[in-house]
Amino acid sequence: MNSKQNSIVRFNFVLTAVFVVVTALAVIFFSPAMRSLVAAVDLVLFAIGVATFIWGYFSAVQRSRSDEISVAGLFLLIDKVAPKSIMRAMNAALAMQIIVGLAGAIIRGSTNGKPGSTLAFGVLVPLLGLGLNGLWASKHGSFGARTLPGGSTPEGEIGKDGGHG
Question: Which residue in 102, 110, 161, 163 has the most C-beta neighbors within 10 A?
Answer without folding.
Answer: 102
